[in-house]
Specification:
This protein has four helices and eight strands; from the N terminus they run E-E-H-H-E-E-E-H-E-H-E-E. It is α+β, with helices and mostly antiparallel strands. The protein is globular.
Length: 173
């Protein structure tokens, strides 16, 4: 699967992506607000095996894709759309970018494309996302892609209960 935007290519992960993925997935600053990480090399390898397995499922319910900047030929991050197991027309989106690529609109561009894919091709009714209340950059991205704040949720993350902002967007029409 591939999705192209004006500046990006969203594609399946390749076995040769380990170094690029590990560079951002092991960066404590990059994963400060995520539900996982920082990764060790084995964690990154396990992630790549897991996303390769997602791509083979029929029907496919998780779309974990590499974010690539084709102008420089660099994998700059990861994005995922995962359909709900209990509500088939709902999904959750999440993304992470390597530090040098933050603040240039890439997360917004990639998220818009994958969310549109979910609505147009998967027949989703709702796409949700969460972010740490301190992660104002991610909250701005979610707002820019048309999501609206929908309250707060608590999740058990990294051994403790943490507050999360909850966002949602619904399909037009």
């Amino acid at each position: 699967m591939e999705l192209a935007t004006r500046r990006l290519l969203l594609r399946e992960f390749h076995g040769t992506d380990h170094a690029a993925v590990h560079e951002f997935a092991s960066d404590p600053e990059v994963v400060r607000y995520t539900d996982w990480g920082p990764n060790d090399p084995q964690d990154t390898a396990a992630f790549l095996r897991e996303v390769a397995e997602y791509a083979t499922r029929t029907p496919r319910s998780t779309f974990a894709l590499a974010i690539v900047n084709p102008a420089v030929g660099t994998l700059i991050g990861s994005i995922q759309l995962a359909k709900s197991e209990t509500a088939p027309r709902q999904a959750e989106i999440g993304y992470v970018l390597a530090r040098p690529w933050c603040g240039h609109g890439y997360a917004t561009e990639a998220s818009k494309a994958l969310m549109r894919f979910g609505f147009d091709h998967l027949g989703l009714r709702t796409v949700n996302a969460t972010c740490d209340p301190a992660n104002s950059a991610s909250a701005r991205v979610l707002t820019k892609i048309g999501m609206r704040p929908a309250g707060r949720r608590h999740r058990y993350l990294r051994g403790q209960w943490r507050d999360r902002l909850f966002f949602a967007a619904t399909a037009a029409g």
